[in-house]
Amino acid sequence: MSGAREQFGTRIGFILAAAGSAVGIGNLVGFPVGAAKNGGGAFLLMYAIFVFAICLPVMLAEMTVGRRARKDPLGTYRELSNNSGGWKLAGWLSILTPFMIAVFYLVITVWIFGYLFEAVTGDLDVLANPDTFNTFINSPKVFLYMAGVSAIVYLILQGGVKEGIEKAAKLLMPSLFLMLLILVVFVLTRENAMAGVKFYLIPDFSKLTASVINGALSQAFFSLSLGMGILITYGSYISKDADVPNSAKLVAITDTAVAFTAGLLILPAIFSFNPDTNPAELSESSIGMIFTFLPKIFLALQTSIGYIGASMVASLFFLLVFFAAITSLVSIFEVPVAALMEEKDVSRKKALVMLGLILIALGGFCALSFGFVEFFTSFTHYAGADKSFFDVVYDVFYDTILPLNGFLICIFVIYRWKRHNLNEALEEGAPNYKGSLFARYVNMSLGTFIPVILAVIFINTVCLKYF
Ligand code: PHE
């Protein structure tokens, strides 16, 4: 099978595809909401430390095992562990995780798709009203948009790796970044925006609680697409002469730059539009915040470029965010699809349809979790609160499982596959890696303090979240 495996056409194609997968709702929605919720600067600082000190080595590990085994995550764990039953379980987990992440990711992508339509056809004043979001996510229209998004995902994935992912990423990610930068400049020139910049950039160390630290780590993992088999799968498509360490660094830098810029847009916007914002109240922030403040920014643009101009900017922006979300959704969903094709020898089409139907059903339950249907809205109860179906999927597969999967991959590469195999594989195609400071850091950390920190955060999250 490995001989026939598709490969990325060019190195830059791989980097852009990996960055296209990495840049998504996590950067544009999750990160600014996380920063607002968790004390601004303190969160940003922890996030940056986690990305470069912990996530980057884990990213190398994932890409490298994938490239060596040339298999889906399950096959990778199986092959490199000589078929050990315990490790197969880790493989299963790294297929189940992206599938369940795709479930809630689908729902948020659907909302973005909906806002794109509303921005094109509707009124920015309405979108900027804080009540609109709640009304929107509980309207039956959501299911129409869900059908649209599902059809798009199907069409892209049916096209295969090269055509689908590489093309979309190459064109759209740079445009999105440019547009973000322009909007940041606009927001920063508004009154009181500097209060938001201060909140965002100056860490208040008294805010560094365990839950802020856990939140920053989950967000970093999610944003870089770690712990969900993505980079193992992507790694399996990288050619032997690609420089994995360098590519990983570029992906991490790009992804972090986009998240940082999104934060620099949203937090100053909050303080500028609501000058009385009390930073303590921001701990209640939720995803809806982004869907209210973005339209507010576009509405404010009206005075400079007119209503039609502002609507056009809003539509273009939502279009680009939608593409960022869909490239991510496609790459998450590709993991279980590729695994099913490989493990059960079914056709791409069959795998897509089978898993797609389950995805849409579970995504539908999530979409009904916001008041539409009582059963899904008050699905269960833990940590002193009612939890919806959406909350459960989100809590388990975003906040809890990612550090566990990270821990498993570290232990796997260092103690099962063995350090010398990892190093040998990492050096392939990377002439400057061997003996570099970075290589020494990876070598020292991946078998020691990185898994320890990940295990502590996992256990801590379980205790804080569910009890
Ligand atoms: N990293 C993506 C984001 O930040 C989410 C994602 C997860 C994408 C898994 C692909 C795979 O939105």
Bound molecules: phenylalanine
Strand proportion, as a percent range, falls in: under 5%
Shape from CA axes? globular
Strand adjacency order, main sheet: 1-2
Order of helices and strands: HHHHHHHHHHHHHHHHEEHHH
Q: Which fold does the CATH topology refer to? A: Hydantoin permease
| Gap from first CA to last CA | 46 Å
Outline the biggest β-sheet: 2 strands, antiparallel
Output the structural class: mainly alpha
CATH architecture: Orthogonal Bundle
- The radius of gyration is 21 Å
Q: What brief labels describe this structure?
A:
467 residues, mainly alpha, Hydantoin permease, two-stranded antiparallel ribbon, 19 helices, 78% helix, binds phenylalanine
Structure description:
With 467 residues, the protein is mainly α. The chain has one domain: Hydantoin permease. 78% of the residues lie in helices and 1% in strands. The protein is built from 19 helices and two strands. The protein has helices at 11-22, 25-37, 41-69, 73-80, 85-121, 124-128, 130-137, 141-158, 161-188, 193-201, 210-223, 230-235, 244-273, 288-344, 348-367, 374-377, 389-427, 437-445, 449-466; strands at residues 380-382, 385-387. It has a two-stranded antiparallel sheet. Strand 1 (380-382) and strand 2 form a beta hairpin. Helix 9 (161-188) runs parallel beside helix 13, helix 11 (210-223) crosses helix 17 (389-427) and helix 17 (389-427) runs antiparallel to helix 19. It is globular and about 60 Å long. It starts with 10 loop residues before the first helix and ends with a helix. The structure holds phenylalanine. The site of phenylalanine (PHE) has 16 residues, from helix 1, helix 2, helix 5, helix 11 and helix 14.
